[in-house]
Write a structure and sequence with these properties.
8 strands; TIM Barrel; 228 residues; 54% helix
């Protein structure tokens, strides 16, 4: 399984990137909005510097027509780098653009997926990643686990290299369920991981270990024992 950071906050990427074993960074206009106005291309070049070439970087287009998507994809690839995964909403125009870009060897992440058929079409269009919106599916009474499982079967049956990158989570339980359902990758805010690992129960367990150690050895550390 793989974990992507769903953020463009440079400090978060640097800080949490030293803690969590992540494999890339995803973004979209809503994520960018949380940062406010940025120097778009320069900002993403800095993200690339931080994460390196071994991790994936996903940047979304805004155009709603095929030609516009193609032009924006070219601008991103030219002004950031050619290894960027171009995120394209899975609309009719998006599917048309995906097929053209794949013929040119461009990496594609098909996003804004709510339905099984959208994912099937994106797989057939050659998308490298498909991004079903987990929480948003639940909000409109679509079963995200069943949807992800359907993608898994389609990918296995067709021997497709497409990976499922589940997105749009409100809590860690949804993340876990997406992985159990078969998602190869999830993308989530680093703060969501931080909140989970900072839960009181974990802190109490660590504190209890310290108390138990002290009850046996007193105010002595493991390193102190090497000097005895």
């Amino acid at each position: 399984m793989e974990f992507l950071f769903d953020t463009v906050n440079l400090k978060n990427i640097e800080t949490y990137g030293e803690i969590y074993p992540y494999t890339g960074v995803t973004s979209n206009p809503s994520i960018i909005k949380a940062e406010g106005e940025i120097d778009f291309f320069a900002h993403f070049k800095e993200i690339r510097r931080i994460i390196g070439r071994e991790r994936s970087l996903h940047i979304q287009t805004l155009a709603t027509d095929c030609n516009g998507i193609l032009r924006e994809a070219e601008a991103i690839l030219s002004n950031v780098d050619e290894d960027v995964y171009i995120k394209i909403p899975t609309t009719e125009a998006g599917l048309a653009a995906m097929q053209i870009l794949k013929r040119q060897g461009v990496r594609i992440t098909a996003t804004a997926i709510y339905s099984i058929i959208q994912g099937f079409m994106a797989i057939n269009a050659g998308a490298d990643f498909i991004a079903p919106y987990y929480n948003r599916m639940e909000n409109v009474d679509i079963d995200p686990d069943n949807t992800i499982s359907a993608y898994v079967k389609a990918i296995e049956t067709s021997s497709s290299p497409t990976k499922i990158v589940a997105a749009s989570f409100k809590n860690i339980a949804q993340v876990n369920k997406a992985i159990i359902a078969g998602a190869h990758t999830v993308t989530l805010q680093p703060a969501l991981l931080h909140d989970v690992f900072g839960m009181a129960a974990i802190r109490k367990a660590v504190d209890d270990f310290a108390v138990d150690w002290e009850s046996v050895f007193g105010d002595v550390s493991i390193l102190d024992l090497t000097n005895g």
